[in-house]
Amino acid sequence: MAEPMYRRIAQELRERIESGILNPGEQLPTEVELVETYGASRNTIRDAVKWLATRGLVESRPGQGTFVTQRFEPFVTTLSADETGLGGSEGEGAYREIRERGRTPSWSQPRVEVQNAPRYIAERLRIPQGTPVITRRQERYIDKQPWSLQVTAYPMDLFTQGATDLMMAKDIPDGAVSYLARTLDLEEVGHRDRILVRPPSEEEAWFFRLPDDGRISVVSLVRTGYRDLGSGPEPFRATFTTFPADRNQFVINSGSVPRALAEPAVDQHFDGSQTSSVRETS
User: Fold this and answer.
1) What pLDDT does 274 receive?
2) What is the pLDDT of residue 28?
3) Cα(68)–Cα(206) distance, rounded to whole angstroms?
4) Residue 153 and residue 176: Cα distance in Å, rounded?
5) So where are the chain's domains?
6) Which end of the chain is more exposed for a tag (fewer CB within 10 A), N or C?
7) Domain spanning 5-68 has what CATH number?
8) At what angle do helices 5-18 and 42-54 cross, to 10 degrees?
């Protein structure tokens, strides 16, 4: 069975993109130009461009045209129980794995606020909705590219008990969890992670520079940290970390595994047009 014409056109344009003839940020020929080049109908050209867009190779900008998207080398983050950025750490502890992979991290100063807990925070901290909480928000980058957004919420009683640095708009060098252990003798005895995949909010789409059509999802890691007050585990922090799906992968280790950091992988059910060509070898 002959391949549809729109697929042949799309494949040819894809080859031009992947070979570097069309570079990231470069505009594709206009619809009229593509119609003339391929002798195809407008609908056929639109179907070809849509095929490229669904694979993350191009994006349409209203009033401007269609452009080749920027390609990212996926960053692999290890989800673990230690003091990592995913665990709500601040300062150097949050970026250890980035440096170990030969990449360069950077970050904004934390934005600290006191707010009435919305439902999604209240549920994690087991407090009534509207209870005042401290939130610390930070933007994070790898090689100057937006990598993640993180917001951690803490009950106000941690501040009144003496953890005053939670209210300071500055990094906590050894991480908030270590700081609370040192200051309040508060030990995190465990945490629970929830991994959600959802469309980006308007703010997230702007920060991560995602297409307006919502075709690139974000991965939201919700980590609730627990302390033991004698009656069982009680939550004392809720960390919400958001990652764009086009530049992040995650690894969960269990038991005996190779010591080397995991490399980006390609799913066998995906053609790899949006991911690194590096395959996992172990």
Assistant:
1) 43
2) 92
3) 18
4) 11
5) 5-68, 75-252
6) N
7) 1.10.10.10
8) 50
Give me the chain's average pLDDT, please: 86
User: DSSP class of residue 235?
Assistant: E
Q: What's the chain's length in residues?
A: 282
Q: How does pLDDT run across 12-48, given as a tens digit for each residue?
A: 999 998 888 988 889 999 999 999 999 999 999 999 9
Q: Domain 75-252: give its CATH code.
A: 3.40.1410.10
In this chain, the answer to whether the domains covering 5-68 and 75-252 adopt an identical fold is: no
Virtual CA dihedral for 239, 240, 244, 245, nearest 10 degrees? 90
Residue 88 pLDDT greater than 50, yes or no: no
Q: What is the pTM of this model?
A: 0.77
What is the per-residue burial (b if ≥16 Cβ within 10 Å, else e) of 261-279? ebbbbbeeeeeeebbbeee
